[in-house]
Amino acid sequence: MSEKIEKVKNYEKPSSEKSLITKEKYDGLWNKIFYACLCLTIIGTINMMMNVRKFRNTLISLNPSYEFSKYSDFLICIPLFIFFSIIKYYTQKLLVKPCEKIMTKSYRFPKNEKDKQLGEKYRLKLPSHAFKGTMYLLLTIFGYYVLKDLNYFPKELLGKGWLPNMFIKGYPNSYYLEKPPFFDFYYMLCLSYFSSDLVWLLFINDRQTDFINMLLHHVCTISLIVFSHLVHYSNVGSIVLFLHTETDIFVHLTRFLLQTDVPEIFKNISGVTLVFNFLYVRIFVLGKIIVVLYNYVTWKGIVDWFLLIFLAIIYLMHVNWALMLLQKM
Question: What is the distance between the alpha carbons of residues 327 and 329, in angstroms, rounded to a whole number?
Fold first, then answer.
């Protein structure tokens, strides 16, 4: 009998180690890809800084009467950044006690050191997820109000338009946008929020295993917002911002519910909704936007290419996150 047990142990152990090594190699491979993408993003950002003025001057010379975006547009981000930072800091402090009351029972009354450590971790994470989920909900509602009637806001996102309408005028006419009320404010609002979130990621939050992924995502997103505004790519940028904030509602809702004592049915519904929403919005719709960009942009200079590369890097990260979500189903 003891010999059979020993054989079973010897059989299972290599399988377990093999699985662990495979996961480590998988994560290590993605991290190497993301480090390479981060380097490419930094190179692209520097290159954009060197070329954006020339790009803008060419557009201005072709249509001097058009009201172009200005560098001074970003000044509003200073008070907005301060506003988001103060609101985030104090809101998360106020939410600690209420979130503790609904946190998983094993974390509230830990019976071992592991549960105690997890309880301390989620004691701070639950207020963060509650705040972020609420902010993304508000940004999504405001974004939909601003964008819904644009002729390029796609039906896939409950709009009335067609994506290629952004570029069918050709170069340079497609860069002279007709902006609805609050369009630029929505853009600066999102830039300010993501900038404050980057500060939290770098200097306030504890470093997580996905730190490089999140850093790359934030750097790409902020670079895209800044440069797309300056070169009047904010038509496509606004849609990319909208689909990101929309999906993040379900990301933070699911993360919040998983560490609470709410009935399992609500956790399951939230998780399934997140997976389908993520695959549809961030894989299908964002992928379609990238294809439209590649097929319909009629003049591809260095600025166009780096904006497309930044989008492709963000898409690559979404593919990785989608695979992780599917593995957990």
Answer: 6
DSSP string, 118-179: HHHHHHHHHHHHHHHHHHHHHHHHHHHHHHTTSTTSBGGGT-SB-GGGGTTT-TTGGGS--P
User: What DSSP element (H or E) covers 110?
Assistant: none
Residue that is written with structure tokens 């699911």 in the block: 254
DSSP-based three-state secondary structure for 63: coil
CA distances from 50 to 47, 204, 310 (A): 5, 32, 16
Host H or E run for residue 102: helix 77-102
What are the per-10-residue average pLDDT scores of the chain (329 residues)?
46 47 73 89 91 91 92 96 95 92 89 87 91 96 97 94 91 90 96 95 83 89 94 94 96 94 93 96 96 84 87 93 86
CA distances from 271 to 132, 172, 276, 277 (A): 17, 44, 9, 10
Asked whether the whole model's pTM tops 0.85, one would answer yes
Instruction: Find the DSSP H helices in 148-298.
Output: 183-199, 211-230, 234-258, 264-277, 286-296
| Under 8 Å between Cβ of 27 and 205 | no
Q: How far apart are alpha carbons 244 and 242 in whole angstroms?
A: 5
Cis? peptide before 98, omega within 30° of 0:
no
> What is each CA distance from 275 to 210, 238, 291, 324, 328, in whole angstroms?
19, 23, 23, 10, 10
Residue 98 structure tokens: 């209420």
Chain centroid offset of residue 66 CA: 32
What is the residue whose two structure tokens read 């180690």? 17
Cα–Cα distance for residue pair 306/86, rounded to 1 Å: 34
